[in-house]
Amino acid sequence: MQRLILPTVIVIVASTLTFLPCLHAEDKTSSAVDEANIREARVSQNQAIAAQDPDRVASFWTEDVTIRRALGQPVSGQAAYRKLFEPTGSQTSRVIYQRDAIAIEVSPHWPLAFEEGTWTGHMGSATGPTVIGGRYSAQWVKRGGRWLIRSEVFVALTCAGVGCEYPALP
User: Fold this and answer.
1) Is 169 contained in some domain?
2) By residue range, what is the domain housing residue 66?
3) What is the spatial distance between Cα 169 and Cα 158, in angstroms, rounded to a whole number?
4) For residue 84, what is the DSSP state?
């Protein structure tokens, strides 16, 4: 009986060790797909910002989204954040923001992801002169199969022209 147990244990252990890399490879594939989905969502949100479509911009946030604006002001909730994207003033005086992801890390365990990147504010259009810029980070959460932004932090680090006149919250 003991002669049968040892070979059986070896076969079970060998089978398990052979299967584990497959699980790890599946996690990497899933993470790569999720990262691509987040990058695509960020590009789509940038397009919505450039088109000055606040409803579409807001569709990428959770209802309870929170942000810390680039110069320090806090904003809480989708409705309050959406108001920041409602067009005001003349087209040439509007600042159009664009975010460019540098890195995205997706959790292999939770429906969470972390994004970091750079942002720029352009005068008049997404291709207008840059008047302010800096770094940002974002927390993404996957709900109903879709990645949404739950929290963002922006930090202003550079400015030019009128952007240098914007006041920071001490």
Assistant:
1) no
2) 2-163
3) 16
4) T
**Domain membership flag for residue 41:** yes
Torsion-angle region of 52 (φ positive above 0: left; ψ -120 to 50: alpha; else: beta) = left
Contact predicate 130/118, CB 8 Å = no
Q: Could you tell me how many residues make up the chain? A: 170
Task: Give the chain's domain count.
Answer: 1
Under DSSP, the state recorded for 168 is P
Q: How far is CA 9 from the centre of its chain?
A: 46
* pLDDT over 60 (residue 115): yes
Task: Pick the closest to residue 67 from 108, 99, 103, 95 (CA basis).
Answer: 99
Residue 69 belongs to some domain of the structure = yes
Token representation of residue 106: 């997706």
Q: The CATH number of the domain where 68 resides is what?
A: 3.10.450.50
What's this model's pTM, rounded to 2 decimal places? Answer: 0.82
In a domain, 127, yes or no: yes
Q: Over the stretch 9-29, which tens digit does the pLDDT of each residue have?
A: 444 444 444 444 444 445 667
Looking at this protein, which amino acid is placed at residue 2? Q
pLDDT tens sequence across 50-87? 999 999 999 999 999 999 999 999 999 999 999 999 99
